[in-house]
Amino acid sequence: MDSQPTAEEAALRREIVKTFQIHAFELKKEAVKLCVKLFLEHDKDTRKKWTNKMIELLKKQTLQSSLISEELIRETFRQCKSKGSQDAGKLLNVFDAFSLHAYDFEPELGKMVLRKATPTLAADSSSFSHAARQRFLLVKQRAARCASLKNFKFTTCEILSASTKTLKSVVVLGMLTQQKADCYHIEDLSGSIEVEFKEDTKFHHALFHEHSIAIFEGNFENSVLKVNEVAMVPVESAETTRKELSSNENWFGGEDKIAFRCSERLRSALAKQEDTSIIFLSDVFLDDMKTMRALNKLLIGYKDQPPIAIVLCGNFCSRPRQTDTIDLLDRGFRYLANQLQQMKKEYEKTQFIFVPGPDDPFVDSVLPRPHLPSLLFKHVSPIISATFASNPCRIQFASQEIVVFRNDLIKKMCRHSINSITVESISSRYARSILSQAHLCPLPQHITPILADFSHCLSLHPLPDLLISADRFETFQEKVVGTETIVSNPGSFARSNYTFHVYYPAQNRIEASQIPNSELID
User: Fold this and answer.
1) pTM of the model
2) CA separation (Å) from 363 to 119, 320, 334, 369?
3) Which end of the chain is more exposed for a tag (fewer CB within 10 A), N or C?
């Protein structure tokens, strides 16, 4: 027989039921009891905060009924607690790609709108169409308000397809596609037309390949656009994007309503962190002794002034996709744990963030990729503050927004480019292309597959303060005219003589660093 509730419990019970009812939710008897149990020890403000968080989460779920069960309350509370690691007093937060809310650009409203449908791994053809449409719309709306393009008169594929005349100096914004060998088309939201590139076609400074969204100028005759020039849409800063869309809404990650860069409190906090740094490394082979010695040198070198975070990107094994890969990784993480144990006190306030590489095990070949296998967590988690993140992932430090992406994309983009490029220009062309496309992976599905319903996780809209594009290509850092965003590649730590990058968020500055080989001699 249930004991009679105290006056405080009864009052709390009525408050909980009423709050949920206001939002059109009806709690089952057992669910009410669980809420009372969870909230009884907390004060009124804390209860209100947790109740609101739970209701917000419930609203975002596709529920069969407004009747809420005990099990659903328990799971929702668990999610709130996990998301609660991002709190007002914590300056550094890591957002998993699969936790990000999906926002779509609605041209009729002229603003970003939270997507109602829940993303699914088993997407159908309509999801792929929606993802491509959203990519195009984000670039198109930026082109429409770009001051340097105001004098251009854009036309559409539909209008050109209906024309039987020869038209000079036609300008079209479209996505480059290849429907058969040596035959290219450009597509927009109205249709598709064939294009022909000549020997003297001028390509502006970027990488142009299949699925690039670009501006094509040329003469239209005999149903073919003979292209004179191709250019990317100019890059737009995050500040301009928000000003044009009249929004300070948080599209980056987490549950904060206001964008981090728009928060006066966070901007003030960042200004006080002048010497705070974040270290980025890629291709950290934990099974290679020389690489581990280099990593140990790095850790020893920074232990007197440790960074707020160390981001280690895969691949984490020099022998990927082998029968013994997982055993090598297990031993590698155990060895890393032993190294960290010796410096546990020095790095107690440093967040270690592990981002999987393209060849790490138990990871699908599609993007975004989930975190590393859970069985590897056990070695380092008891010693340090560790986050096993997705690829890509997003990092917030105070008012700064950072995107980390580990993929050997540069070589693929160069290989599939239709314009000729020099090695010296690759890094600047790549940076301009990625920022103009506002998407981490603008290549087609057959080259780099993406989960269609999670394409928004690869979006760069608005642009972040820092994009870490961890790639085997040589180390570089680039800034594109029109934005303060830094595009940084720390290079391959294991393959490129132990290069890495150190970022100072308050200064918005990257410092290229390296462990000298001379320090690694036995």
Assistant:
1) 0.84
2) 19, 12, 20, 6
3) N
